[in-house]
Each structure stands twice: as C-alpha cells, then as structure tokens.
Design brief:
Order of helices and strands: EHEHEHEHEHEHEHEHEHEHEHEEHH
Strand content: 15-25%
Radius of gyration: 22 Å
Number of strands: 13
Helix content: 40-55%
Strand order of the largest sheet: 3-2-1-4-5-6-7
Largest sheet: 7 strands, parallel
Distance between the termini: 40 Å
Length: about 375
C-alpha cells in the first residue's frame, strides 16, 4: 500500500529528527512511503540535505496553526494528496492538530511524536493536560521515542506507543573500524560532545570538567545558542590547542577517533547522539537526567549526577573501556524504526479509508 506522509517540523536544522529522517529515507521508500517535509519559519539551514536525501521539502514562513498556515496546509494536503500527517513539533500542539485534522477532511490520520520529557508542574501542567485531552481526540496515535517519555505522558492520562529512535547504518560500521585503530590512537584521550548548543544541552558542564584535564576535545553542533560560559570554555580549549574540531559536521569522524562521549543534557527524549556513540562503541558519560536513564544498564555507560564536581571527577577518570559489545537491548537500526512507523502510517490511513467508505456507502431502506 503506497502512502504519502507529510512530516510537520519547525525550523529545519541538523538535529535529531531531521537526521533520523535522512537515514530512514531509503527505508521509507522501500516500504512504499512517499514523504514530504514541511518546515515552519524562515530559518532552514538543513533543507538542502533533506532534499538531497530524496524528500520533497516545503516551507512556510508562519506557524501551521495560524490562519494563514492552516490555509497553506490544507492547500498542500490537497495538492500532494497526503494520506497521513506526522506532527513532530512540540509547541502549539492544539492548533497544529486542529489545522491538520481539517486539512485531511476531518480525518484522524494524524500521528504525533512527543520527542522530549516535559516535567510540567503547576499551571503549565494543568494547561498541558487540558490541551492534551482536547487535541489527542483529533490524533490517531501518540508516539514516544523511549519508555521514559511514555511514562511521563501517562501522568497526563495519555496512552503513548514507544518507537525507539534510530541511527544511520554507517555507525554500525564504525565500531569495527575503531577496533583496528586502538593501537594507533593518540596518547591523550579525546572527548566527544555532539549536539546543538542550548540551555537544555548544558555543554558547559562537560566543558568545565574537561578544562581541568589534559584531554583533547571535539565539539560538534550549532553554536548559535551557546551561552557565554560555554563560549568561554570553548575559546580556552581552542587557545590551549586542545579543541580539535568544532562546528556543524557529521559525527562519524569524531566517533571513529574519539576516546569517549559526553552528554550532560538536562533532559532528552532519547538522545540520537547518545545512540550513535553507543553503536560506535564509545564509553559514555551521561547526565543522570530524565530521558537518558534508559541507557543506565547498557555496558559502557556511566550515569553522572548533575554536579560540577561529579563531572570533573568522571572526566578525570576517563577513558574507561567497554567490552566492545553491541547493545542488545535496543535495535537502533533505521530499518527497524522506519518499518515500525510505516506500520503506524498504514493503520492510520486504513482507518481514514474506512471512515470515507462508511460515509459513501449508500443507505438501504427497509420496506
């Protein structure tokens, strides 16, 4: 069954979901899934990469939930003959779901992925619960990338299916290549940090710890939203000759040559960068925070309390060696993830068709 799925995202940047879509492009095509990506706003630095992967990329300068956005969405759905809408954005959920429901002819062929752990409290929790109870009625299925996200949403009385995030197939090959580089690696350990800078990622926690070591550093990600403290540590490491690479680039080289991986995020949905590091075979220092605890039992992962002293001590003790075994508890392959989503899309589309058929079925008068 061939289907057309429209993915609604915000700004198209080199972050988790955009990278996952690129790695799943061929797998979705093999599943008979035609995909269009709709970016909102006027900042889309990753649009070219998504188009190069084979996606039809459309952008609108305003929010889909606005009046102008809703009209544009409805027109796009009709023009492309979209079967299913997949909502990835976190904000403005109610208006986005409403616009999607109307665009699809008041059909619930809508899938929404909740990508992060939101520890809502007080008034925000009440508002989020009310919004969820209303908007979820318009949606076929809610998806979470980890059991932690699912458990968090259950507190709002929501039923969420878990479909784990995935990584590029190339990272499975890096593990084998790393084994051949063990004896030729530099004596000084190389720490790897991957992710766009933000308050949530709090890279400064890891960078401060590294400042007090002699370790070299690879820091990959968009630094536009880096805070002053993070910039100061990066400049210190750069002046000290220990910042080997920085900026936006694919992490394959970093994970091939690095000694260990650091993820000090305040919270995550799952953390695609962490999954990449695990598949590549790097020991990992991970903040003991919501959305990351799924990795606690995986060999090579050390959970660190969110304190500067704890991170300094952990960095000083690195690198520790893992047994080099592939994590077996979770299948991180793009083929698995795309197959599970394709099943969800088909189920949503079938329900949409059944609804149409029931409306079109002629009534029979009993005489």
């Amino acid at each position: 069954m061939s289907l057309h799925v429209l993915h609604i995202l915000g700004s198209l940047r080199p972050s988790g979901m955009e990278k996952m879509l690129i790695t799943a492009a061929t797998h979705f095509a093999d599943q008979g899934i035609q995909s269009t990506i709709l970016g909102q706003g006027d900042n889309h630095p990753y649009a070219h990469e998504l188009r190069s992967a084979g996606y039809n990329v459309q952008t609108v300068p305003f929010a889909v939930g606005s009046r102008a956005g809703a009209r544009e969405l409805k027109s796009l759905v009709r023009e492309l003959r979209v079967d299913v809408i997949h909502i990835h954005t976190e904000g403005d959920y109610l208006r986005t779901a409403w616009a999607s429901w109307n665009a699809l002819g008041r059909s619930k062929a809508i899938v929404r992925t909740i990508h992060n752990v939101f520890e809502a409290t007080g008034t925000w929790r009440v508002k989020r619960m009310i919004q969820a109870q209303v908007a979820d009625r318009l949606v076929h299925l809610l998806v979470a990338p980890s059991p932690e996200v699912s458990a968090n949403e259950r507190r709002l009385f929501r039923h969420v299916r878990v479909i784990y995030n995935w990584v590029d197939d190339a990272f499975f090959q890096i593990r084998d290549r790393r084994k051949n580089l063990t004896n030729s690696q530099a004596q000084e350990p190389v720490a790897v940090i991957v992710g766009n800078c933000s308050n949530i990622k709090q890279h400064e926690l890891a960078l401060q710890a590294l400042k007090d070591t002699s370790h070299k550093v690879i820091h990959l990600g968009d630094e536009s939203d880096a805070n002053e403290e993070e910039r100061e540590y990066l400049e210190f490491l750069n002046r000290d000759g220990r910042l080997l690479r920085r900026g936006v680039e694919a992490p394959q080289y970093a994970l091939l040559t690095g000694s260990y991986f650091m993820m000090p995020s305040r919270h995550e949905g799952m953390g695609v960068a962490l999954a990449e590091a695990l598949v590549a075979g790097l020991p990992c220092l991970v903040n003991d925070a919501p959305g990351l605890r799924w990795a606690r039992s995986i060999d090579g992962v050390e959970m660190i309390p969110e304190s500067r002293d704890a991170w300094i001590a952990a960095a000083m003790a690195m690198p520790r060696k893992s047994r080099g075994e592939m994590p077996t508890s979770i299948d991180f392959s793009a083929s698995r993830g795309s197959f599970e989503y394709a099943e969800v899309y088909r189920d949503a589309a079938q329900r949409k068709l059944r609804r149409i058929w029931s409306k079109e079925a002629p009534s029979v008068e009993m005489g």
